[in-house]
Amino acid sequence: MIFDPDFRNSEAKEKEANPxxxxxxxxxxxxxxxxxxxxxxxxxxxxxxxxxxxxxxLPAGDFQVQIATDRENLANLLASAMMTGYFLRKMxxxxxLDETLSDPDF
Length: 106
Known about the structure:
0% strand, mainly alpha, 60% helix
């Protein structure tokens, strides 16, 4: 999973400044790749299912699926996947903490 900081149209004017977008643009590709790779397989599976549900899930073996969208909708999809990933990671950490605290040997 690679995040491309240049995917957004540089001519697009935002109504309001987006501090997260500005922060992401300041990060090196290596840092973004490291963050993307830190997601566990469980989180990746859930995000993949979520994105597949949003864009359609026809089996690739039976259909030649192509999806067309504009940059703004693609950016919204990316933001949704990112927020889902952060949320899922926090829930995964909470689950691990609950399991640790419920362990009678702890």
